Amino acid sequence: MKNIFIICTVRTATPEYRKRLENYVFDLESKGCQVHLPHRDTNQTQTGFEICSENKEAIIKADEVHIFYNPNSLGTHFDMGVSFALDKKIVVVENLSYDQGTSMLHVLMEWEKL
Predict the structure, then answer these.
(1) Mean pLDDT over all residues of the chain?
(2) Where are the beta strands (DSSP E) in the chain?
(3) Do 38 and 11 meet the contact criterion of CB atoms below 8 Å apart?
(4) Percentage of residues in the chain with pLDDT exceeding 90?
(5) What phi, psi does 71 have (nearest 5°)?
(6) Angle at 21 between CA 9 and CA 28, to 5 degrees
(7) In whole angstroms, how far apart are CA 82 and each of 16, 28, 53?
(8) Quick one: pLDDT at residue 1?
(9) In terms of pTM, does the model score above 0.85?
(10) Backbone angles phi, psi at 68, to 5 degrees
C-alpha cells in the first residue's frame, strides 16, 4: 500500500479547490493508497509550528508527495522544502504553465523527472 502526502493550499482554499482535492484523494484511496490530506488530516487548530511539525512527520512516512502547486501559498513552499530535503518522490498534480518563468516551476519540473 502506497502512503501519499498531498501538498496543497489550506487556509485560502476555495470550496471548488477543496472538492478537486477530495475527488483526487478519493480516487487514490479507492485504489488502496493511504493519503494524508492536510485540511482533513492535520489538526488545523494548532499553532503554525505544530501544523508544520505534524505535516513533517506525515511527509517522513510518505512514499510519495503529490503537489497541487500554488505559488502564493507559504505552507505549500514549506512542505515542498521538507519533501525536497527528504528526497521524496513527487507527482505534480496541478501546476502553473512552465512558460510563466517562475524558477520554482522549473525546479518542480526537474524534481519530478528524478
Answers:
(1) 92
(2) 3-7, 34-36, 64-68, 89-94
(3) no
(4) 77
(5) -65, -15
(6) 130
(7) 27, 22, 10
(8) 87
(9) yes
(10) -105, 90
Cα dist from 25 to 46, 70, 77, whole Å = 23, 18, 20
Over 70: is that where the pLDDT of 35 sits? yes
> C-alpha cell of 46?
494548532
Residue 96 has pLDDT above 80, yes or no: no
Which grid cell is 50?
A: 505544530
What's the chain's length in residues? 114
Rg (CA), the chain: 13
| Type of residue at 23 | N
In angstroms, rounded to a whole number, what is the distance separating the alpha carbons of residues 45 and 72?
Answer: 21
Phi, psi of 92 (to 5 degrees): -90, 115
What is the rounded distance in angstroms from the CA atom of residue 37 to the CA atom of residue 52?
Answer: 13
Alpha-carbon distance of 4 to 42, in angstroms, equals: 14
HSE, CB side, 13 Å, CA atoms: give it for residue 81.
8
Is-contact 6 21, C-beta < 8 A? yes
